[in-house]
Design a protein that fits this description.
single chain, 266 residues, Jelly Rolls, 8-stranded antiparallel β-sheet, 2 helices
């Protein structure tokens, strides 16, 4: 619900849309490449939520994504472009919420505006676990076939949870799409929800033998932790928001997509 007195959803900043929709409870991360308060040149993104104060630093040298557009432009032309080996890393030890995404009873969600560049390999939106089941943490990515997937690793050598969306939620290459995922591990059945644009579906969120220790790696964006599964060449990321302990409902995700879609020309 739009908060009284805030008027129509006319602002183009993602953080303003989230606040106007009343979705800032539990907000832990908000990155908006087109917002000058998030990116104003240089090689880092500042968090707009207050939950991740260190921000995210670009990978060094050839591992740095490329900014496209005009600083503060707030259009579909402002984004980070990835070349198949780029990533961002949290610029400090993981915040407590980042180390809580894989634990027993975890409750969290993420939403992003993303344009995949190609298919053929797993490519991570974010993660803390890398791609080994001997590690601990979470990885959210597009599968080889461009379907959203969540993997939660418990360090046992056997994956704690790995769920891939159905073919109905296959992403489209070189097109802006709204991607969302939420995990309510305690709920179990139907506790995991994928969203791709207006479509969504649920799955079981129960994690086998969840770990209660810290994630193996510092959180990365554009890779799944320790530089694993980087976004493939040509991928574009414009915005990423994450929540923990209090998360948007399916209808609230849909409202956020509706509020922001005109910025991306869809």
């Amino acid at each position: 619900m739009i908060r009284p007195g805030m008027g129509a959803l006319r602002r183009r900043r993602i953080i303003d849309m989230i606040r106007q929709l009343g979705l800032d409870s539990g907000l832990r991360l908000c990155l908006d490449v087109g917002d000058a308060n998030c990116y104003n040149g240089g090689s880092a993104l500042a968090d707009l939520s207050g939950g991740s104060p260190a921000g995210f630093s670009f990978g060094g040298g050839a591992a740095a994504p490329t900014f496209n557009g005009t600083v503060g432009g707030l259009s579909s032309a402002e984004y980070l472009q990835f070349d198949g080996g780029d990533y961002l890393t949290y610029a400090a030890a993981n915040a407590a919420w980042m180390d809580a995404l894989h634990v027993d009873g975890a409750l969290w969600a993420a939403a992003a505006w993303l344009s995949p560049g190609s298919s053929g390999s797993n490519q991570a939106l974010f993660g803390t676990a890398s791609n080994l089941n001997s590690n601990i943490g979470v990885e959210v990515f597009l599968s080889v076939g461009l379907r959203p997937q969540v993997a939660i690793r418990n360090g046992s050598g056997t994956v704690g949870l790995s769920v891939v969306a159905s073919a109905a939620l296959t992403a489209t290459v070189t097109a802006w799409q709204f991607f969302g995922v939420s995990v309510d591990e305690a709920t179990g059945a139907d506790g995991l929800r994928f969203r791709l644009n207006a479509q969504s579906e649920t799955a079981n969120a129960t994690v086998s033998s969840p770990s209660d220790t810290a994630a193996s790696f510092t959180m990365q964006i554009g890779a799944g932790g320790n530089n694993a599964h980087p976004l493939l060449a040509g991928a574009k990321l414009a915005a990423l928001a994450m929540w923990q302990n209090s998360v948007p409902s399916s209808s609230e995700f849909l409202a956020l997509m509706a509020a922001s879609r005109s910025r991306f020309g869809i």
